[in-house]
């Protein structure tokens, strides 16, 4: 059951990040899920550096926000590599 929740939440986080970074038209549901899940790991790492977020077993608002930040960072890096600039 945890995998299903991770996929759903990852898809939502990836979709929100793609809206913020103006990449929604170029990404499908699969890539939204991938960006959300990978962004969650990046956000958790960033959160651990600054003391914000939660553990892997906890579901919290700060954890979701850090996942969104991580997904936005991931899309910013992807924009930088693909287009040579961060939008």
From TrEMBL:
Compartments reported by the entry: Cell membrane
Transmembrane stretches, start-end: 6-22, 29-53, 59-81
Example of a GO cellular component annotation carried by this entry: plasma membrane
Membrane topology: Multi-pass membrane protein
Keywords tagged on the record: Cell membrane, Membrane, Transmembrane, Transmembrane helix
Principal location listed in the UniProt entry: membrane
Similarity comment text for this entry: Belongs to the UPF0410 family.
Stated name of the protein: GlsB/YeaQ/YmgE family stress response membrane protein
Organism: Qipengyuania citrea
């Amino acid at each position: 059951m945890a995998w299903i929740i991770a996929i759903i939440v990852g898809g939502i986080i990836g979709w929100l990040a793609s809206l913020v970074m103006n990449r929604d038209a170029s990404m499908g549901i699969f890539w939204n899920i991938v960006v959300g899940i990978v962004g969650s790991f990046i956000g958790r790492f960033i959160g651990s550096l600054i003391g914000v977020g939660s553990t892997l077993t906890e579901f919290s608002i700060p954890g979701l926000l850090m996942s969104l930040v991580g997904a936005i960072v991931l899309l910013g890096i992807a924009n930088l590599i693909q287009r040579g600039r961060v939008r």
